Amino acid sequence: xxxxxxxxxxxxxxxxxxxxxxxxxxxxxxxxxxxxxxxxxxxxxxxxxxxxxxxxxxxxxxxxxxxxxxxxxxxxxxxxxxxxxxxxxxxxxxxxxxxxxxxxxxxxxxxxxxxxxxxxxxxxxxxxxxxxxxxxxxxxxxxxxxxxxxxxxxxxxxxxxxxxxxxxxxxxxxxxxxxxxxxxxxxxxxxx
Length: 192
Hints:
Blueprint: H1 3-29, H2 35-56, H3 61-82, H4 94-111, H5 122-136, H6 139-147, H7 161-173, H8 178-191
Helix pairs in contact: 1-2, 1-3, 1-7, 1-8, 2-3, 2-7, 4-8, 5-7, 5-8, 7-8
């Protein structure tokens, strides 16, 4: 889990989760510094919706993610044009924004110190990686895995938010680096 893995995880979070989440985040949070941290979380929410569509209809996670991201961004743009401009609210003073961003960035850095270790605990293996691998396997693999009685032990009722983001990392970088999915999970937790 060296710097190359962290860089790959950052690419997934910032580019593949963050960029599609920017417009909806700005529509919700306006000029708040929270937009920086909200955008990847909204992108992860879009991957969760894509995972549900993959399970229910078929096709791939990546295909559904593109469809969901385009739809959500189109809806945010339409809302912004129709309603958003008419409700102008003053933003926070720039000094407050800089101070808030610095404090939140410090908390983000502190929460990411765990990435220095190579240990993936029981929950990471039994729950999050298992779920991410299931989602990344495609419609048939996910459906078959969910119907398997052995699956009842790793918390089948957990929502697909985090595993879908890990599965997106697998779709982009392959299954050879399980640590990348763990790092995406840590980065999303830091954003939350």
